[in-house]
Specification:
Elements lengths: L2 H4 L5 H43 L5 H22 L1 H24 L10 H30 L3
Length: about 150
């Protein structure tokens, strides 16, 4: 290992930024994957129902009923887990964090004339994360109100 590299102290601001970019990127990809998989399954199941209804295949009525239940259950899972909303929100936050990183590394505004650019980066990153957390907390508080008593 290069001696100059070995003596460089870890940068907690950049470590935090990289960690959060990675977390939001991973969660966005996961939410997108689940959303698309469930929606595709729903669409295929819904498309098969009319074919089964018009067919004379044995047990077509039972299969049609199962597909209807499957569609309903999957839609409930989508609503419960908010995969689409999370995908969009996480991707937006991830891209905002990447933007801050790029602007900081490029020395662009607002970092150009800042007295303490690293501190400004930390403040801006934490403000983005606090905003994301506030949105999440707001959604969590609203969920119990929408459930039947």
């Amino acid at each position: 290992m290069n001696a100059a590299i070995a003596n460089v102290a870890p940068d907690p601001v950049m470590e935090r930024l990289e960690d959060q970019i990675s977390w939001y990127d991973t969660k966005s990809r996961s939410s997108r994957k689940w959303f698309k998989w469930i929606k595709t399954t729903e669409i295929v199941a819904a498309a098969v129902i009319p074919l089964l209804a018009a067919s004379t295949i044995p047990h077509a009525r039972a299969v049609t009923a199962v597909l209807g239940v499957l569609i309903t259950a999957f839609e409930g899972v989508l609503q419960l887990n908010q995969f689409h909303e999370n995908w969009i929100s996480y991707r937006s936050t991830c891209e905002s964090l990447k933007h801050e990183k790029f602007m900081f590394l490029a020395g662009a505004s607002p970092y150009t004339n800042a007295d303490r650019p690293r501190a400004l980066l930390a403040e801006r990153v934490e403000a983005l994360l606090a905003g994301e957390h506030a949105k999440w907390a707001s959604v969590q508080e609203q969920e119990p109100q929408s459930k039947p008593a």
